[in-house]
Amino acid sequence: MDKKFLTKEQALQKLRQYCAYQERSHFEVQQKLWDLGVRRADHDEIIASLIEDDYLNEERFAIQYAGGKFRMKSWGRRKILYGLKEKRVSDYSIKKAMKSLDEEAYEHTLKKLAEDKYASLRGEQYLVRKKKTQDFLLQRGFEPELISKVITWISES
C-alpha cells in the first residue's frame, strides 16, 4: 500500500479544519499527522504553527474535555483524570481542568446518580443495594470518600 504524502501546507490546512471542528489534544493531532502520512520532520513545525494560530491549546482542550464528560456523561473526577492522561495531557492542564469543575454541581450530580441507582434497586437487600450503588458510582469515576458520605446519607434518609 503506497501512502500519499501531503505537503506541509496541505497538512496544515487539513489540521486547521480538524482542530476548528472541536478542541483536540496535542496527542490527537500527532496521531492525525501520522494518519495523514505527513513526514515526521514536519510534525513539530505544523504543531507549533497550530498553537501559534490558536487552533491548538492543551489547557483549553482539557477544560472542555472535563466539562463535557462531566455534564454530558456524568463522569467523576477520577474517570476524567484517566481520560485526560490517556490523551497525554500535561499535569498542569489536568489540574486546571479539575479546578474548572463546579463543586456544587459535582456534588449534586453525585447525589442524583446515587439516589437514582439506589431507588432502582428497591427489590434488593439493604447491603446489596449499598454495594451495587457504590460500585456504580466508582465505575463512573467518583471518589470513594465522597461515595461513602452520599451512600450513608441516602441509606439513612
TrEMBL record:
It comes from the Bacteria. Coiled coil: none annotated. One of its GO terms (biological process) is regulation of DNA repair. Residues 108-151 form the RecX third three-helical domain. It is found in: Cytoplasm. Residues 57-98 form the RecX second three-helical domain. It holds the Pfam family RecX_HTH3. Its main location: cytoplasm. InterPro entries: RecX_HTH_2nd (IPR053924), RecX_HTH_3rd (IPR053925), Regulatory_RecX (IPR003783), WH-like_DNA-bd_sf (IPR036388). GO terms for cellular component: cytoplasm. Gene3D superfamilies: Winged helix-like DNA-binding domain superfamily/Winged helix DNA-binding domain. Keywords: Cytoplasm. Belongs to the RecX family. This is Regulatory protein RecX. It comes from Cnuella takakiae.
